[in-house]
Amino acid sequence: MSDYVNTLTEDKKRTFTLKVITYIVSILLAILILTPFWGMLKEVFGEETIIEPAGGGNFKITHIPREGMMTLKEFCGLFNEYTFIGFGNSVYVTFTSTILNIYISALTAYAITAYEWKMREAFEKFVIVAMMIPGTVASVGIVQWIYKLGLTNKLFVFILLAIASPMNVFFMRMYLKATFSKELVESARLDGAREFRIFNQIILPIMKPAIATQTIFSFVASWSNIWIPRIVLMEGKKRMLPIMGGPPGAQLLICLPPILLYAFLSKHIVEGISLGSVKM
Amino acid sequence: MSNRNLINRRYTKWGYIFSIPFFICFLAFNFVPLASTFYYAFCYLKHAGNTNPEFLPLVGKPWYQNFKDVFKAKSFWDAFKNTFFFWIASVVPEWILAFWLAVMMTDRRLKIKGRVIFKTAFFFPKLVAGTALGGSLLIHLISFVGDSIGNVLMASAIDGFGITPEDLEPFMNVRFFIIVVTIFMHFGITFIYVVAGITGIPVETFEAAEIDGANRLQTFFHVTLPSMKPILFFITVIAVVDGVGMIDIPSYFGIYDTLRRNLTLMMYMENQAFLGSYAYDKASAASLVLLAIYIIISGIIYLTLLRDKDEAKLKKLIRQERKAAKEAV
């Protein structure tokens, strides 16, 4: 009996130590990761940081502090008209492509999960293979394609390019596999619902956590995508915010939408692929 | 039963209808460019804005000319070595940290609070990554790492822990910075997905392991990892896609190094195609090499992670039995 109690207290001690270590590591890590943002804010409102090469792949860093506080006029000077045009362009491309991408991915995942069609397994394999080949490999082809069709300086190209995302399909399929119940769909059919309506009103709400997660990731990827836009968007008015560089105020503006979206969706982020299901 | 089958068959057409939008978009906007990249690799296609590829044998050159050019370039091999060095050196610590922290945070007995806050903090760099090429964030990540090293230097100068400035010099280096910044940017994603995978495992599984007297390490390797196989596969694919295709962070260091210590495969490809040389054909050949690397790595991952070995064995057995039955008849 005393032996048992001994091992129990020892276990408690060990658990406590582990707990303390975990807290220390994660708090340290959070501080480490967040500190650069403090520097970034300082950059916008004052201090300047310069990195110079020091030969042989090494370099040195100097900080030049600024004197006094920033006035309101100076703050407004951080933005110019192109900042807002670029912001509008970015919002248009990112929002449209994310919505289309997520909806079509969910639809495809549902098609693979719910229906027993002949090509289903082959199609799923195809999605897995496609997922492992990133689009950037084909960038020469994409740029040539844009040149040939005369689509330089057209923003909708980037929406089209972002629609099909095998990675999102795979993730949603993984989620749906765990939460899908055939009975739910069948009872809806008995009530006379059409297939599109079943998907929109029953399946989409079930997939909320997966959709929230992938929305955040797709949004961020699309928002910060500069790989092809940098090459084919030449006209100043067609440029998107992240490729403009420009005044430091633009950088503040770039940060905002992803942070807002994350704040809005973070409570829905997937916590457990098999949780959050409506098993009936 | 047959009635039910009939109903199911009536609805199968919707499987095709619902997957067609994805399929068409993928074919038109992902597959066609990939196929044309494949074709350009065997063509002559140079100069900015040139959209008129000429098949190499028709111009009087061997069909493998572009590949020969790529493999002969010393910078390609530098890029090859760098890419794998950066990738492995950043993925290993990142994964160890992410998995350890995720396991600890989801442990039932530890009851760690504030998981959501930590998740947000870890994911923050990726959220703001749009700024990366605006430069600010990266500059500060770099200067932060640099300053920390400087602080250690200062501390060592005062107290003298036996550390001399020369010991710390290797850390003020482009390669070390690329690795650290990559881990900073990527850690959050891995962490979020690992947590999602672990919390998806039913609690009863862990309870059973605990009752059987498994310790934490045994539980992790024999219960947690095998139970989160699909998401483990997903995380691995993300690590491969982002790691081998690494470009944003290394290219930021381009101005600080003339010896190509930061050059990666994707950067090599971009340099060939769009920045300066406009050799689209050579870039296409480099893309194909990159594609081959992806296929090899993904194949290995698929065979080791996703394929259910027991199921494959079972299928083989069933096939053998059927064969035997046929022969018997």
List the helices and strands and how they pair.
The complex is a heterodimer of chains A (about 280) and B (about 325).
Chain A: H1 2-45, E1 48-53, E2 59-64, H2 72-76, H3 81-114, H4 120-131, H5 139-148, H6 156-163, H7 166-179, H8 182-190, H9 195-206, H10 208-223, H11 229-232, H12 248-265
Antiparallel strand pairs in A: 1-2
Helix pairs in contact in A: 3-6, 3-7, 3-10, 4-7, 7-10, 10-12
Chain B: H1 2-40, E1 43-44, E2 54-55, H2 56-59, H3 65-72, H4 74-106, H5 115-127, H6 136-159, H7 165-168, H8 174-199, H9 203-211, H10 216-227, H11 229-244, H12 248-252, H13 265-273, H14 280-306, H15 309-328
Helix pairs in contact in B: 1-14, 3-14, 4-8, 4-11, 4-13, 5-8, 8-11, 11-14, 13-14
Major interchain interface with per-chain residue totals? A-B, 110 and 116 residues
Helix content of chain A: 55-70%
The whole-angstrom Rg of chain A is: 25 Å
The CATH superfamily of the domain at 85-263 in chain B appears as MetI-like
Q: What is the CATH T-level topology of the largest domain in chain A?
A: MetI-like fold
The total count of helices of chain B amounts to 15
Instruction: Calculate Rg of chain B over CA atoms.
Output: 26 Å
Named at the architecture level, the CATH assignment of the largest domain in chain A is Orthogonal Bundle
Low-pLDDT sequence parts of chain A: 274-280
Tally of discrete structural domains of chain A = 2
Structural class of chain B: mainly alpha
Q: Strand arrangement, largest sheet of chain A?
A: 1-2
**Tally of separate helices of chain A:** 12
The biggest beta sheet of chain A reads: 2 strands, antiparallel
Overall strand count of chain A: 2
Strand content of chain B: under 5%
Shape of chain A: extended
Terminal-residue CA separation of chain A: 45 Å
What does this protein structure show overall?
The complex is a heterodimer of chains A (280) and B (329). In chain A, 66% of the residues lie in helices and 4% in strands. Chain A has 12 helices and 2 strands; from the N terminus they run H-E-E-H-H-H-H-H-H-H-H-H-H-H. With 280 residues, chain A is mainly α. Chain A has helices at 2-45, 72-76, 81-114, 120-131, 139-148, 156-163, 166-179, 182-190, 195-206, 208-223, 229-232, 248-265; strands at 48-53, 59-64. Chain A has 2 domains: 2-70, no CATH class; 78-268, Orthogonal Bundle (MetI-like fold). The longest helix of chain A has 44 residues, at 2-45. Chain A has a two-stranded antiparallel ribbon with strand order 1-2. Chain B is flat. Chain B has a two-stranded antiparallel ribbon with strand order 1-2. The longest helix of chain B has 39 residues, at 2-40. Helices cover 76% and strands 1% of the residues of chain B. Chain B has helices at residues 2-40, 56-59, 65-72, 74-106, 115-127, 136-159, 165-168, 174-199, 203-211, 216-227, 229-244, 248-252, 265-273, 280-306, 309-328; strands spanning 43-44, 54-55. At the A-B interface, helix 1, strand 1, strand 2, helix 3 and helix 4 of A face helix 1, helix 4, helix 5, helix 6 and helix 8 of B.
